Amino acid sequence: MTAALALANLAHVAKTAGVPSYDRSSLRAGMVHFGVGNFHRAHQAVYLDELFNLGRDHDWAIIGAGVLPSDAAMRDKLAGQDFLTTVVEQDNNRSGARVTGAMIGYLAPGNAAATVARLADPAIRIVSLTITEGGYFIDPASGVFDPAHPAIAADAANPGDPKTVFGLILAGLKARRDKGIAPYTVMSCDNIPHNGKVTRAAVSGLARLSDPALADWIEANVAFPNGMVDRITPATGAREIAIAADDYGIDDAWPVFCEEFKQWVLEDNFPQGRPALEKAGVQFVPDVAPYEHMKIRILNGGHAAIAYPAALLDIHFVHEAMEDADIRAFLAKLEREEIIPVIPPVPDTDLNDYFALIERRFLNPKIADTIPRLAQDGSNRQPKFILPSTADRLSRGEDVVGLSLVSALWCHYLAGKSDSGKDIAFNDPNIDRIRAAATAAKGDPGAFLELKDIFGTVAGSDLFRKRFAHALKSLQRDGTRATLKRYLEDRLAD
To answer: What is the pLDDT of residue 181?
Structure first.
């Protein structure tokens, strides 16, 4: 017998899942978070829930916020269950469910005035974001904020009625400045190198388009700590909703499934204070860059590397891709020979040991993470997760056989058919443009590299163009598996 997830039913839920040990009525809002998706609820919200369970910092609860239609749908689902979430942690050897209660409200998307009013509340001292890699209005090739983006231009022209996350954050900061209220800290929780600097560039860059004095004030007074976040969190579907009901007796409209492992490394730059997250396992360090470099290149780059060969071979789940001997060997060779050697040292960390941990995490069958999730949004993910390693090796005069193969696999995938002839479904905001380039590459491999906003200076390398063309022709002529084997036998550069 299932019970609907709600505060009134927690005693029943406690028979099969952990529940908050704190009184929800004791919580007070201290954060507003934009982007209440699965990752946020499996990561930041879990850390806060653990802290609250220790009896600490109950004035740091979360108010959700968003700007997308999906945000409205999520708000409705969470509001119907008192903003509680079932988090199911799954490792190879165990599974367990817990209910988290760190969120106590959710601002209605589309009501800019109400959102700005809450952002101007002195009780709000941190505004955090999980808006995906593609949500920061960054030119992919240069990594620089794009002030010409239509959404940014619209907010710059009408700052009193913002439609983007950054327009809302900016309006909130302006309201606080005008009222003499200290600014909140803006904390990115997305997998972007130097995510704090990127967020600062977006907020101050938008401000500079309409109010240069406000931009100067932001740059002088607002903190944007860098952070590294990590927890593999697949999408929720009917399968996950059914498991929450069948295995744990919880009727949750949108449960979160994730691995047991989690990590959060943060710069301690919070002028208006912060919750004592170190009590819940967050690492505070002077410089996050080595950790984010390691994680983005090895884990996110690893995901990006296996996504396309797996999709081309009709493999649906990540763990099944890792059980394929050729894909697993491809990933190991790529990481050890081309990715790991250009990663700077990380304090108290052996990078090969870290990769071994990543392999084990990718092999976890209980997560049921999917290849379509990893393959989506390549136009934003490739420039952040793969091409920086390519650029680093080229700048050092080193070969890029494996990394060029990753780019060729992405191009071949975009042609739209798996090796067996099945249609591939795409999920990328730039799909029309990049697929046209991939189609043109069937006759001219260099046509794909004309996506200069994605490939940047890498596309100008004669070595990269040669390696890419050779790999792509191998894929087109002989297929994915034969090309992988050629790479594994050190014959792809012949």
So the answer is: 98
Closest by CA position to 367, among listed 247, 229, 261: 261
CA distance 33 to 210: 25
Q: How far apart are CA 199 and CA 170, in angstroms?
A: 11
Residue with tokens 């099969």: 16
Domain boundary among 266, 285, 304: 285
Residue 202 placed within a domain = yes
Q: How distant, in Å, are the alpha carbons of 100, 124, 172, 194, 221 from that of 270? A: 25, 12, 17, 16, 11
**Quick check: 8 and 2 in contact, CB under 8 A?**
no
CA nearest 252: which of 416, 91, 413, 100?
Answer: 100
Distances (CA, A) of 232 to 60, 66, 98, 119, 370: 25, 22, 17, 30, 11
206-221 pLDDT tens trace: 999 999 999 999 999 9
Is there a single domain that holds both residue 296 and residue 438?
Answer: yes
**pLDDT at residue number 68:** 87
d(CA 136, CA 190): 10
109: domain range? Answer: 3-285
Residue whose structure tokens are 């090969």:
352
Which segments of 19-131 does DSSP mark as H helices, in order? 38-42, 44-53, 69-79, 112-119
Both 447 and 389 in one domain: the answer is: yes
* Phi, psi at 492, each rounded to 5°: -75, -25
C-alpha distances (whole Å) from 434 to each of 105, 149, 400, 455 are 39, 18, 22, 12
Distances (CA, A) of 39 to 31, 113, 132, 258, 262: 17, 27, 10, 9, 11
Does one domain contain both 262 and 315? no
Question: For 119-177, what is each residue's pLDDT tens digit?
Answer: 999 999 999 999 988 899 987 667 788 999 999 999 999 999 999 999 999 999 999 99
pLDDT digit string, tens, across residues 54-97: 999 999 999 999 998 889 999 999 999 999 999 999 988 889 99
Q: Within 10 Å of residue 316's Cβ, how many Cβ atoms?
A: 12
**Whole-angstrom Cα distance, residue 288 to residue 126?**
19
Distance CA 440, CA 415 (A): 9
Domain shared by 92 and 212, yes or no: yes
Tens of pLDDT, residues 279-323: 999 999 999 999 999 999 999 999 999 999 999 999 999 999 999
Q: How far apart are CA 28 and CA 450, in angstroms?
A: 52
